[in-house]
Amino acid sequence: MSPRNLLRKRHEGGHARVTYVELFFDLVFVFAITQLSHTLLAHLDPAGALHTLLLFLAVWWVWIYTSWVTNWLDPDHIPVRLALLVLMLLGLLLSTSIPEAFGEKGLLFASAYVAMQLGRSLFVLWALGDENPGNTRNFQRISIWLGFSAIFWIAGGLMDGEARLLVWIMALGLDYAGPSVGFRVPNLGRSSTEDWDVEGAHMAERCCLFVIIALGESILVTGATFAEAEITLLSSGAFLTAFVGTVAMWWIYFDLGAERSAEHIAKSRDPGRLARQGYTYTHLLVVAGIIVCAVADELVLAHPVGHLELPAITAMIGGPALYLVGVGLFKWPVAGNFPLSHLIGLGLLALLAPFASHLEPIALGALTSAALVIVAMWETWSLRHTRATLRAH
């Protein structure tokens, strides 16, 4: 089979479906998100938050890069499918190392990350061949950037303590800066978003499915924690509060925003730019917010009453706030402004902050969930005519 036969076939006005092997690949990231939330819960302090943030950004970068690749290559072809399964195995190793990534398993985390990022990029170079010269040059640049950052990832894995953190921050900074500067390389120039011939609807669907994965982790945490708790009025109230909050987050993202954004990128003349801005970068805020909310839910379920410390308050208010900021930025290109409903929700959460330390955990959890419900209801009402128009088409 020649490399060019591995490309997805594009159909005018069509939609490249998400394949079963892509969904199978995503299962690894259900485990990764669980590992991240449990790691943050076990180290709920500034240092633990910084470590978890760095690990989350690395996990997200692995997943989103793979989604870009499967936008171009067809996973129904055996070489691409096998490559995804190898990435899945490496992703499982990456996920298992998360709790001890700043301990004994730092080199394992770094090695798995580098193998996934650089190995996938080199595979794409082979798969593209000469079929798409613009993308071939793009992945030549990407491979050089990833190869350079790999030096810092592996070096950090060999270090300890603060030295590892600092070197990994440099590595992650290189990885995240790459797309924003077009992976500029001397003598090879830089990539433009026009080179990133992305199939918009497929990218939108992939990111929507990842949000479902993250929300599913919240459901798992809620169910697992409640299953181990004694069933009382307080624990039942905490369980209901956590569930309602998760439903509200789903509603805020999926009721209309996800569909409008998918249609917007599908019709765009420069879908690569929208995919970079709205899905590659903005969605990491959305998923990060869900993870922090899952941590907050587990805190409330485990201790519905008692004194709230600052780290718990930060998670309980900061998680929903981060989610609303992320979803609001995601919706901005379509709506033309930051949604008023999200601003109202952020305002309500800000009003809770001065009084949070005087509230029981279950009360604060109920109020933050209520703020999310208000956002969902407000947007549903305010966009009722837009929804009717969209459904009519």
Word description of this protein:
The longest helix has 32 residues, at 271-302. By secondary structure, the protein is an all-alpha fold. It folds into 2 domains: 3-195, no CATH class; 200-392. It is built from 14 helices and no strands. It has helices spanning 20-42, 46-72, 78-96, 106-128, 133-157, 161-180, 200-228, 233-254, 257-267, 271-302, 310-335, 340-352, 361-382, 384-392. Helices cover 77% and strands 0% of the residues.
Whole-number average pLDDT? 89
The count of DSSP E runs of length 2 or more, i.e. the number of strands, is 0
Number of domains: 2
> β content, as a range?
under 5%
Shape: globular
Helical amount: over 70%
Order of helices and strands: HHHHHHHHHHHHHH
Describe the structure using short key phrases.
77% helix, mainly alpha, 393 residues
Give the secondary structure arrangement, pairings included.
Elements: H1 20-42, H2 46-72, H3 78-96, H4 106-128, H5 133-157, H6 161-180, H7 200-228, H8 233-254, H9 257-267, H10 271-302, H11 310-335, H12 340-352, H13 361-382, H14 384-392
Helix pairs in contact: 1-2, 1-3, 1-7, 1-10, 2-3, 2-4, 2-6, 2-7, 2-10, 3-4, 4-5, 5-6, 7-8, 7-9, 7-10, 8-10, 8-13, 9-11, 10-11, 11-12, 11-13, 12-13
Short note summarizing the structure:
This protein has 393 residues and is mainly α. The protein has 14 helices and no strands.
